[in-house]
Amino acid sequence: MKQRKIILLGVLLIVTALMFQNYYLAPRSEAMHEEIQSAYGTLQKYEAYLKGSGITDKEIQAAIADMKKLEERLIPEKSEFLSSASMQRIVSELAEKAGLNVLTIRPINAVKDGNFLVVPVYFEGSANIKQISDFLAASEKSPIMLKIDKMSYNVTNMQNPKELRFKIQISGLTRI
């Protein structure tokens, strides 16, 4: 009789354990499994985002480095007057090296553009096409970033067509 009670108690214990597993643990296990899959999917999205942002971060660092290089090519003077004087000096030196015969050079009012000041200079004179070409090449290679805003040239003396009269407006940038 004791042995039957023990067997009955053992069977009852096994049935209780099976019922506990099927009705309590199994549903919770499935819910937990779904939660884990959802969280894993979210983690994969975040991982893809971080990989993408790593590329963007590299591009931002490259853009910052390029900006620093460009800032080195700005006019170092901070005031409008000194920037205009510096631009006149730079343009005069470039024109002299290229062999241009500058008749007049004058600053034009600077224009604010965001955090920068555009400092234009107007000059005119005479030269041959080679000298004008040399000036343009020198202005492109200048340590200061220069931009040709307007340029015109024409033949003024038909007896000497190689001699050209030019008018150039050139500008540089300075940080305000």
List the helices and strands and how they pair.
Layout: H1 2-71, H2 80-98, E1 101-107, E2 111-113, E3 116-127, H3 129-141, E4 146-155, E5 164-175
Antiparallel strand pairs: 1-3, 2-3, 3-5, 4-5
Helix pairs in contact: 2-3
Descriptive account of the structure:
There is one protein chain. This protein is of the alpha+beta class and 176 residues long. 14% of the residues are buried. The protein is built from 3 helices and 5 strands; from the N terminus they run H-H-E-E-E-H-E-E. Strand 2 and strand 3 form a beta hairpin. The longest helix is centred in the first third of the chain and has 70 residues. The mean pLDDT is 85. Strands 1, 2, 3, 4 and 5 form a 5-stranded antiparallel sheet that branches. The protein is rod-shaped and about 135 Å long. It has 2 domains: 72 residues; 96 residues, Ribosomal protein S6/Translation elongation factor EF1B (Alpha-Beta Plaits, 2-Layer Sandwich), CATH 3.30.70.
Structural key phrases:
176 residues, 3 helices, Alpha-Beta Plaits, 58% helix, alpha+beta
Q: Count of DSSP E strands?
A: 5
> What is the rounded distance between the termini?
103 Å
* CATH C-level category of the largest domain: Alpha Beta
Shape descriptor reads: rod-shaped
Overall CATH architecture of the largest domain: 2-Layer Sandwich
User: Into which percent range does the helicity of residues fall?
Assistant: 55-70%
Helix/strand-derived class?
Answer: alpha+beta
Total domains, how many?
2
Radius of gyration: 39 Å
Question: What is the count of helical runs?
Answer: 3
Average of per-residue pLDDT values: 85
